[in-house]
Amino acid sequence: MSQHFHPLSQTRFDGYSFDSQSFGCQIYEQKGNTPFLPCQGLTFPLLYLQSLHMSNSRFAIALHTLALLACSDGTKSSTAIAASVNTNPVTIRKVLGSLNCAGLTETVMGSDGGARLTRTPSEISLLDIYRATEQRPLFEHHPKPPNQDCDCGRKITPVLSCVFHDAEDALCDVLATKTLADVLLEMEVVAV
Rounded to whole angstroms, how far apart are CA atoms 79 and 14? Predict the structure, then answer.
């Protein structure tokens, strides 16, 4: 279970603690029940970028998976999908689990088993895919509440909440206007 770094605070990420309060990036690794100790060989940019990539790539992986299924006859195994996406089959199975729960795909057991779409591509909006795969909000507040003794700290959270809400609404509005069928049509005109 991964948590995501927030670049301006202390937080934990899959057994790691990050502290940039003093603008000196320090990463600590937890060993068992011992306190967080300085982590050897890990740098903030790498871990932070990896955490951002994982949280933001589920939608892209799901869209790629669904496009592949739409272009296929029958079912596709997680191994075959993973080869196309260039990732691990376990990652594909996790994404397919979310898509199955949302009713966008189903898994067929047996020697010819695998995943397949449950709807036509024109019946699957990009918003359906986004909602099935992205459980976290698009933007998040500081993990710690701002200082309420500071005038800015008292007022920033409600203002940011409105901005974040409007931004996510705008994203959802755009995703709702496009379908998997639209993506497939756009793929046909891409010159490689």
Answer: 26
Cβ partners under 8 Å of residue 121, min gap 6 = 66, 70, 179, 180, 181, 183, 184
pLDDT band at residue 55 under the 50/70/90 scheme: low
- Given a contact cutoff of 8 angstroms between Cβ atoms, the answer to whether 127 and 63 are in contact is no
Kindly report, residue by residue over 8-35, the tens digit of the pLDDT: 333 343 443 434 333 333 334 444 444 4
Q: Which amino acid is at 145?
A: P
Give tens-digit pLDDT for 84-140. Answer: 999 999 999 999 999 999 999 999 998 888 999 999 999 999 999 999 998 777 777
Copy the structure tokens of residue 33. 């029940």
Angle of CA points 168, 120, 185, to nearest 5° = 70
- Cα 148–chain centre separation: 32
pTM of the model: 0.66
Write down the H helix ranges in the chain. Answer: 44-70, 78-85, 89-101, 126-133, 151-176, 180-188
Say if residues 8 and 44 touch (Cβ distance below 8 Å).
no
Task: Say if CB 28 and CB 38 are below 8 A apart.
Answer: yes
Structural domains in the chain, CATH included, are 1-42 (no CATH), 57-188 (1.10.10.10)
Q: Give, in degrees to the nearest 5, the angle at Cα 144 between 138 and 150.
A: 110
